[in-house]
Amino acid sequence: MKKKRQECLWGNRISSPRARCLLVIVVLCFFSLFSSQVSAQENRNISINKQNVPFEEIVREVEAQTDYSFMYSTETVQSIGKVSVNVTNVSIKRLMDAVLIGKPCTYQIEGKVVIIKIKEQPVQDTIRQKAVKIKGVVTEADGLPLIGATVVVKGTSVGVVTNATGNFELEVPADHDLVVVSFIGKTSQEVRITGKTEINVVLQDDVQSIDQVVVTGIFNKSRESYTGAVKTISASDLKASGNRSILSQISNIDPSFNIADNIEFGSDPNQLPDITIRGRTSMDVNVRNLQEESSVKSTANLPLFIMDGFEVSLQRVMDMDDELVETITLLKDASATAMYGARGANGVVVITLKRPEAGKLRVSYRGSVNIEAPDFTSYNLMNAREKLDYEVAAGMLDDKYNPNNQNLMELYNRRLIEVERGVNTYWLKYPVKTGVGNRHSLRVDGGSDNFKYAIGLSYNNINGVMKGSSRNTLSGNLYFQYELKNLKFQNDLTISYNKNKNSPYGSFSEYSLANPIYTPYDDEGHIKKQLVETISQTSRTPDPAGNPLYNASLPSRDDGSYTNIQNNFAIEWKITSDLFVRGNFGFTKQDSRTDKYLSREHTSFDTDEYKGENSNMKGSYTYTTSYMLSYEGNLTVNYTKTFNKVHQLYAGLSGNLAEDKDESYSVTGRGFSSLNMKNLGMAGAYALGKPTSTEAHSRRLGLIFNVNYTYDRRYFADFSGKIEGSSKFGSNDRTAPFFSAGLGWNVHNENFLSSSNAINLLRFRFSYGTIGSQNFSSYQALTTYRYFGQENYKYWNGAYMLGMGNPDLSWQKTKQLNLGVETSLFNGLVRLNVDYYNKLTEDLLTDINLPTAGGFSSYKANVGEVRNRGIELDANVFLIRNSESHIMWSVGGNLAHNVNKILKISNALEFLNSELLDEAGPNPSFLYQEGQSMNTIFVVRSLGIDPATGSELFLNKDGERVYTWDPKDKVPFGVNEPKVRGNLRTMFRWRDITLNATFSYRLGGHIYNQTLVDKVENTTTAAKRWGNLDKRALYDRWQNEGDVTKFKNIKDFNTTNASSRFVMKENALSLNTLNVNYEFDTEWLKRHCRLDYLAIGFYAEDVFYLSTVKQERGLSYPFARKFSVALSARF
């Protein structure tokens, strides 16, 4: 009986999953619904006494006294003119009746929104009898309803505005069949209604109205009067530019946000990218770090990431859900970044998250299935027969060196038999797979005018193409906003958990090097530990080669995890309509750990170090834990005022205080007697005798101001500044001022262009300022010591100097000039933006040498200078924009050109440069040298291969031809940075189907082709000689006298040193993203599925890569092509 009673109460709805979901959400949101009812019962009294004032002044006064907001068009307000009113303690309805009496406008109240509209004109009764009544809904491109959109019968003043759900009803005179639908910031549409009673209209963003507000993370500015160089990216722009990573999506949109092509780690999901904006401004003081790769890897050049006013890490941005993002703003020049002081030199990325809107409960979901497939197109490896032919041609199986040794002939016969019976192992296939992942994002939001809330949950599962590699992120978000009179309270809490695993299959390079004549399994199907057994003691036979698959078969662990908690609280006090105060406080806490275990059977322990009495030390376990905690508080005052209709003033003042703490501990245990002892406590001893640790602690304090003045919307000026103090610098110079000034001219608002139909926007901008950088060690200005640990004398521990302090260590400063032009032509059909910049970074932190008698070799000081100059261009053209046919096609592109030059370095760097130039080796030198770029490649000039001998001919510094390579002959030879980089894009939309494609290109840069060095010529070691090689090692090397080739004698096993033969000019083109999106008919969804919005999208990313340089890409981890299917729904 009890069960039947429950069914009677709920009916059949409780059995529906959707109904059960809504029931739970209603319970969770009970407080907000209660708040809405209370708000609805409020009846605030209004008192105003204004004579002959603009209608906007009445609006500001009402908004200051009540919770009501207004919605109207400029044309509507202009028709009202000036008004006079004197009322005391009246309702909003009585006030509006008094204000609009005798005016051509009326009003409509929707909740707490007052909509001002033109009065409908009376029509004749005969026409009314024949009028057609239509209804419909107006939405944005993503399906959200547009509240207050205007629907007008073309050629008349008959019209209505849409309600809170975007719906409308309109009587259209019988002699008219066109209605015009418009909304501020959207492209108007004309819709023919012949034979229709219902219409659905989707309004697209108007290119003339996009980005009208610049979000800087501290102050929000009007784009019309902003002098800074910025790029604003909307949520729809992100969706059109990919489906995987926010960082790659930004790079696909703006080339100044440069992600270095990671040839080493390819598509490894656990690798943080190397990012710069407008070139590198800081030096890595350890120049030897530059020799490891062809690009500078340094966090000192990383831009600052700000999310809703607070700094976040690169790792946090990489793992975040893009469904949470409302806009992303790139701040590039001094005018835009001066308010960030010492943190703004490398550019700032400001991320603004979506906020809930008042109204009915909304549930949004987006899910996708993601596929990653390995891309081997850059590999040009030999097959088994080619590899055997190479060994013969190179004389590796030639017995003439030892006539009495038959082992080489036996080895050749054995290999020939293997080849003839079809052995041709494709090693690249073993460590990879097709990775299948999934991504889900669920968001619930709603509330009343006084209380709004949003609850979000997201999960991102990335399975990389290397077996066992993955990255999983689970994130929850809770946001609420409460308004009480003139106060607004906001709190945003986000908790994220990440688990990442590296592949147990090791480096992908081990498989590309494995000889295809070898097989990973023996005849009985057991995995081999060694691919080649020692045949004789002669050095000309292959050494034992480890089977890379063997280690993958052993118990192992290589993973990490972190938990990130971030909470941001804000309170805003609107003192008057012109003045408000906002206070923010945020904290971030992150706990991380990594674990890496190698069993005692791992081939890395098959060395002399672990033989004899040390054999019991095989096996290792490294455990690392780290802790990060940061606090930040801001207090901001904003004032804006318009005087005499033509003078607009904005002023802002802000203070901020922040503290950052970081700690990490690491310990390595050795000596595991069993394979499965994957626990640190089972180790026999510590490696290196003790654990290690690091610690950092810093504070900063700043005072920021900004003033903006605009005259008649034509001329404007900006002035910003910050005085900042930081504990990272010397006690004698811990504070520094930073400033910027800018001027601008809105030419399109001049009288001589105000009526132009061709030029809709023409704006000139100029700015100059100084900004700083402090992405450095917390204790670089202090003298620091470290204890010896277990080494002590009686009861005392000894210590040694870790770093020598400098109390005069100052801030690294960047002076930047920017000139910009923005233009829009023919109602937005053509858009073009151009920026030129000149950045001079002074007082770079570098090492200064000391006399060796002092006991310490160097200390940090400000002596370096670097300059970056460049130009950025962005253009877009609509080839087709036909609202009647629902067809839109646009093409666009952008480019970035940057020239980097070192103007001054320290004596310590000069000394280290001379040491590196004297070192021999196959890799080029990357040095900091005055007059050169930070990315200059240093090699010995080559004249090519002598056809008579097959040896390389060089050109020394004296201009003489020599056969001997000398490191002292190294010279700068090319810059590892493209002269021009950019993107090409196209968008085609027909009705509900949208196609987007984005290409990227690089032109004119030089790269050092390491593949030619390692896989074609430099076969000096047995591992390389007997392993697999590039096909060019067989077909393109010199073999006979008279051969004209690019590569030296095939029988020459001497080391090939860094030569200009391997420095190549690269032009590259890649298809970064291709997507097709289909949006289902809204009315059909509402009738049949009770959904407000439904769309399905197909994405392909990193589809192809074309380059004039043929080299292997993805050495330790391969690149991947990525495909996904995404579904978005809202109800």
Automatic annotation (TrEMBL):
Domain TonB-dependent receptor plug: 224-348
Signal peptide range in chain numbering: 1-40
One Pfam family this sequence matches: CarbopepD_reg_2
InterPro entries the record matches: Beta-barrel_TonB, Beta-barrel_TonB_sf, CarboxyPept-like_regulatory, Plug_dom, Plug_dom_sf, TonB-dep_OMP_SusC/RagA, TonB-dep_OMP_SusC/RagA_CS, TonB-dep_rcpt-like
Superkingdom, taxonomy of origin: Bacteria
Location within or outside the cell: Cell outer membrane
Gene3D superfamilies linked to this entry: Carboxypeptidase-like, regulatory domain, TonB-dependent receptor, beta-barrel domain, TonB-dependent receptor, plug domain
UniProt domain TonB-dependent receptor-like beta-barrel: residue ranges: 497-1077
Location (main, coarse): membrane
Topology versus the membrane: Multi-pass membrane protein
GO cellular component terms, A-Z: cell outer membrane
Annotated keywords: Cell outer membrane, Membrane, Signal, TonB box, Transmembrane, Transmembrane beta strand, Transport
Family membership noted in the UniProt record: Belongs to the TonB-dependent receptor family.
Protein name in UniProt: SusC/RagA family TonB-linked outer membrane protein
Gene source species: Butyricimonas virosa
